[in-house]
Design goal:
Blueprint: H1 6-47, H2 51-77, E1 90-95, H3 104-112, E2 120-125, H4 128-136, E3 141-144, H5 148-158, E4 160-163, E5 166-169, H6 173-180, H7 188-196, H8 202-208, E6 212-213, E7 237-238, H9 243-248
Parallel strand pairs: 3-7
Antiparallel strand pairs: 1-2, 1-3, 2-6, 4-5
Helix pairs in contact: 5-7
Length: 251
């Protein structure tokens, strides 16, 4: 190489450096592709679900659907005792179970109530149709008649409203007045009164309210009990005024 002119030496060295840089880039690209293939393979292995799990899930859904149909038939065939239903009263409904073994129809009803997650709660005004729907999903919920004090505590400590897809905490009466003054609702007390009395603006207020997020109550709603009704020392179902003792420990 000593016999090569100086200018030609520079050209040869530059060419070698370019080739090395190009080869280095190729090596890096190959290493990246290999790494991606390995990650994809791991992800596929992770996402793979054994057929037994599909079968088990299907069986659980069928069991839940059979329960749903039995409930549906029972309510359609038997005359509902309307006198036993607290018509036009405020109910506090709490979701206490997940969706691992739920039927599609029951899941749809829970979505209508906006009870998409465990340990969330909503206020509803009782009608015969609402009562029937609650009965059809009551093995996933517990519900009852809230006191004014519990309603107040829930609004003050857990209350949020939805406005234009934005969730806003009810930190002051100014927020309430801004969004609800068209119905002469300007403070927390107005909201509490509307809900407690199930008055004419009940739907307007509860539509604004985001489902209440609650804590899991210590020592209550244990996994073994939430699958049983209250009548069999379980947790799900209608608990009348006893709902207040439960929710007090969840706020």
């Amino acid at each position: 190489m000593d016999n090569i002119p100086q200018a030609q030496k520079k050209y040869v060295l530059t060419d070698i450096m370019k080739k090395r840089k190009h080869q280095s880039s190729l090596n890096e690209e190959r290493a990246r592709q290999i790494k991606e293939r390995i990650l994809k393979k791991k992800q596929k292995t992770k996402d793979f679900i054994h057929p037994e799990k599909f079968v088990d899930k299907y069986r659980k859904q069928q069991t839940a659907y059979s329960y749903f149909k039995r409930k549906e038939r029972k309510q359609n065939l038997e005359t509902l005792d309307v006198k036993s239903i607290p018509i036009n009263k405020t109910l506090l409904v709490v979701r206490i179970r997940g969706v691992k073994d739920i039927s599609n129809k029951q899941e749809k009803i829970l979505k209508e109530f906006r009870l998409n997650k465990v340990n969330t709660a909503v206020f509803v005004k009782t009608t015969v149709d609402i009562w029937k729907k609650l009965k059809l999903v009551e093995n996933y919920i517990t519900y009852g008649l809230p006191t004014r004090q519990i309603i107040n505590d829930l609004i003050v400590k857990r209350g949020h409203i939805m406005k234009e897809k934005e969730i806003i905490a009810l930190k002051s009466n100014e927020i309430i007045e801004e969004y609800m003054s068209e119905k002469d609702i300007i403070c927390v007390e107005d909201i509490v009164n509307t809900i407690a009395n199930a008055s004419e603006n009940f739907d307007f207020v509860t539509k604004f309210l985001v489902p209440l997020k609650l804590n899991h109550p210590e020592g209550q709603l244990k996994s073994g009990k939430i699958k049983k009704p209250l009548t069999k020392q379980g947790e799900w179902g209608y608990r009348e005024e006893r709902i207040n003792n439960l929710v007090e420990n969840m706020i």
